[in-house]
Amino acid sequence: MRKLLILLTVMLFPICLMAQNTIGESKEDIRKIIQSNPNFKLLTGDNSDTLVFTQGMQAIFDYKNNICYKSISVMPLKYMSAIVEKMTTDSYKKINDNTWIDNKETLRVTIVVDKIKGVCFVTTTSYEK
Question: Could you tell me which residue, 16 or 64, shows the higher pLDDT?
Answer without folding.
Answer: 64
